[in-house]
Amino acid sequence: MSTKLPPKQQTQIFRSSRELTKTANFRQFIGRLLSVGVELDPVRTHADPGDSFEFELVHTKTSIGHLIRTTLSSGSISGVFPRNARLEQHVLIVGVLKGTLALTQRGETRHFKHGDFLIFDPHMNMTVLTKKPACFVSILVSESYFYTHAGFRSASFYGTGFNLDSEVQNTFSAVLGVLADKLTLVDARDVADMCDGAFRFLRPVLAEFTRLHHAGLQRHDDFVRACAVDVMHHYFNEPGLTREKIAQKVGVSTRYLAKLFAQTGTTVMDRLKEIRLTRASVQLTEEHMAHASIQEIAKTNGFASTAHFCRAFKERFEMTPRQWRQAHLDFNETENP
Asked: In whole angstroms, what is the distance from residue 82 CA to residue 40 CA?
């Protein structure tokens, strides 16, 4: 049996060489970043003055996105991840594994130390600067993947830095560190599944942050709606989840909850259906779900029948689930010949 990894699931390691000059090593580093897909700003990307430039870049490309562990002696990296051919929104998580980083986006510069992690919009230019040896891990995934596995829309957390203020933040930081540390040791085909697990640890971080930082700033109506959506994410796989049960778990009347969602131009059950369909659309494109039938995916996401799922899916995405799966398979084969 062949053990060759498909192009979209592989780990590559690139290192500086003592036999090369500082300039040559830096050029190699730039070339590796370009091969990952980063569009660099040549003015703000440079090595710091000194006798040498050392780096190690570990890049794991999987079916769900990119994991990049970067170690460098010092320097500045400025660039952006362009949107792909499908114009999907992506999300970037950066975790500091060693040293300190200064990160600038939208003209704001902040400093982060070992253990801190951040969530960014990768389609906006970001500059990473370190004056001393540092190591950091970057995880780039689609917004749909982030929403499905972390349970929240990423836009609510763009620019947010987590500084190990709680045990759930400490736990996710530790998981992120272990994941980055094992990139060169585990089969690249398993990294996507490991990411699935890591994002499960991210969810309580985002839930805690929302409770502590957003509840006091939002109107009460917004907070109740957010609580209802959180309930939907917890119980989406139960076909019997109704508007009444959601209201009961939130602690408000069914009528009041319906009114709150009507203010945003939707209904409670339509919001639940959107969550289920988004999850299903992601699962249909994930390699570890390739064996799952359409019926199984429908059941996994709380649809009472496959027929109901297929009708709702086609209405939302203008394709049947089977067509959606095949279209993404064809796209991935084109991207990775």
From this structure: 10
Instruction: Point out which residues pair with 56 in neighbouring strands.
Output: 15, 71
Cβ-based neighbour number of residue 190 at 10 Å: 13
pTM of the model: 0.73
Strand order of the β-sheet with 108-112 is: 39-40, 75-80, 126-130, 101-105, 108-112
Residues contacting residue 16 through CB under 8 Å, at least 6 positions apart: 25, 28, 29, 53, 54, 55, 56
Q: pLDDT tens string for the chain (337 positions)?
A: 344 444 557 889 999 999 999 999 999 999 999 988 899 988 889 888 877 899 999 999 888 889 999 999 999 999 998 877 666 789 999 999 999 999 988 778 889 999 999 998 898 889 999 989 999 999 999 888 898 888 888 877 888 889 888 999 999 999 999 999 998 888 888 888 899 899 989 999 998 888 777 555 456 787 788 888 888 888 899 999 999 999 988 888 999 999 999 988 999 999 999 999 988 998 898 877 888 899 999 999 999 999 999 999 999 999 999 999 988 776 555 555 4
DSSP 48: P
